[in-house]
Write a structure and sequence with these properties.
single chain; 260 residues; alpha/beta; UDP-N-acetylmuramoyl-L-alanine:D-glutamate ligase; 27% helix
């Protein structure tokens, strides 16, 4: 990784707003099929859990040394993955409490002019997994009343996102929305991640080095965290993309949802 140290990011305050869950992993073995159906018999050995989605963005920021303020749902959403410990393959994922309550207006209206409860905010990350915590109007209000707003969303992009600073989407999400992008005039704000091929910004491909991948779960959260802290430090989006890729490359070599 680069020579940057946590101390360089300690003065930064970043708000993360969005849906959070608990990422649970149950590791075990599956070496035979059930006699009554062609499904694997899973024998659990051990389990791990950690904050996921917006919670994972926040913990990656903290791993970089940033002061992260997480604004998220109260419901206990859980994503449980059953993983074959020998191969790392996910055999099954079970999601619980998949819909959450919307952010309260009192909290939303208090995020204005890059301040929250009177504290200066250097950047805002909208980590929207489209589970109900943020609707389009909420995101539009945040973008219209603050600067340095970065969006990572599962929603189809539309006019509500045009005032964001940058928008990170993956290639599948881009294909779903690209026909409407010309009307929105936000192509210069889009950072399109391309899995192990790197990412694309302003039609330029930023490749990543090849590594042995253990698990890509949460890699997008790590990418976003690295992108934002480096952008605050340098105001250079190209350098920020390279740093974000460096961070994501580290976590995909670890099992489960890992931090930098």
């Amino acid at each position: 990784m680069s020579n940057l140290k946590k101390e360089e990011f300690k003065a930064y305050n970043i708000i993360v707003i969005g849906d959070s869950c608990t990422d649970a992993f149950i590791y075990g073995t599956a070496i035979r099929l059930a006699p009554e159906a062609p499904v694997p018999i899973f024998n659990p050995n051990y389990s791990t859990s950690n904050p996921g989605m917006a919670g994972n963005v926040s913990r990656n920021l903290e791993a970089l040394g940033v002061n992260s303020i997480l604004i998220t749902n109260n419901e206990n959403m859980v994503k449980t993955r059953y993983v074959d410990d020998r191969t790392g393959h996910i055999l099954l994922r079970v999601d619980q409490n998949d819909i959450v309550e919307r952010i309260s207006n009192n909290i939303l209206l208090n995020i204005k002019d890059n301040k929250f409860n009177g504290k200066h905010i250097d950047a805002i990350i909208i980590s929207d997994y489209d589970k109900g915590f943020l609707n389009e109007e909420s995101i539009e209000w945040i973008c219209s009343n603050n600067v340095n707003v970065f969006i990572d969303t599962k929603k189809i992009l539309d006019k509500w996102c045009v005032k964001a600073s940058f928008i990170k989407i993956n290639n599948v999400e881009y294909e779903h929305t690209r026909y409407s992008l010309k009307e929105l005039n936000i192509e210069d704000k889009l950072i399109i991640t391309l899995s192990n091929k790197g990412c694309k910004y302003k039609k330029k491909i930023y490749p990543v080095k090849k590594v042995d991948i253990r698990d890509v779960s949460g890699a997008g959260d790590t990418f976003m965290s690295g992108l934002v802290v480096e952008y605050i430090r340098t105001a250079n989006i190209k350098e920020s993309i390279l740093f974000a890729q460096e961070c994501a490359t580290i976590v995909v070599q670890k099992p489960g949802v890992a931090t930098i």
